[in-house]
Amino acid sequence: MLSTLITGLVLGGTYALVAMGLTLQYGISRIMNLAYGETLIFAAFAAFLLFTTFGINPILGLVIILPVAFAVGYVIYGVMMQPLVTRSKKSGTLEVDSILATFGLLFVIQGVMLVAFGSNYTSYNYLNVGINVLGANIAANRLLAFALAVIIGATLFYVLTRTRWGTTIRAIAVNPNAAPLVGIDVNRTARFAFALGTMLAASGGVMISMYQTFNASMGVVFTMKALVIVIMGGLGNLMGALVAGLLLGVVETLVATYVDPGLTLAATYLIFLAVLLWKPAGLFGKAAGR
């Protein structure tokens, strides 16, 4: 049981980090990015290539992959999303337009991965040795992934809650219409937040690649899980994403270990529905009118 709980927390930490990126993209940029999971899987393949072809371990790979992911996110926002944002000032349909645009982007990225890597499952062997933690034997790569998720997530949380730039981000999340009145460049900040969210998705992909098998068609699964976590935690709430991600990881691991691995998605959506019935605004969300 202890081993299962620790494994669940490790998985949940990665889920939480991934969901934080989607929280930034939707909570700040108002972009519902359906290609989010494909970004994650693309980064996993990049880590695989760096390790198997050039001998670069995933830790050093992060130094290469994350800046590239940030730049790609920055360009995608400028080329694809900025025109939608400009048009939405009159039409007010940014969420719908972004869903349609990123739905197409999903298939573009997935198609590129299928051509480049095929449809087979992929993995690589990195730090796949057991370490004793409180009497439980946990793979070193899982513990490393959890530590990286904690470091990156804690750094992001500190920046958003303790710095002036973080205050700017949160101001836009609370009231994007009033933010320009105090001199905040909403478009520039939203573009930066979208790029940062892309970078967090890539970091999650690298971590997941260290201990899970993956293929080019798995992105939609991670997109759906990230959406579930974001909604469960409360839209735009980083602490909610953290708690919901950890909860989801533990539940999935318990179900896979003691019930049936095929029922993990069913358990995920049961928890999701239970939370929405109990608190429609999410665990840390505020109800309308409060």
From TrEMBL:
GO terms for molecular function: transmembrane transporter activity. One of its GO terms (cellular component) is plasma membrane. GO terms for biological process: amino acid transport. It is a multi-pass membrane protein. The keyword 4Fe-4S does not apply. Keywords: Amino-acid transport, Cell membrane, Membrane, Transmembrane, Transmembrane helix, Transport. Pfam families: BPD_transp_2. It is found in: Cell membrane. The chain crosses the membrane at residues 6-27, 34-53, 59-79, 99-119, 139-160, 192-214, 226-251, 258-278. Belongs to the binding-protein-dependent transport system permease family. LivHM subfamily. This is Branched-chain amino acid ABC transporter permease. It comes from Devosia sediminis.
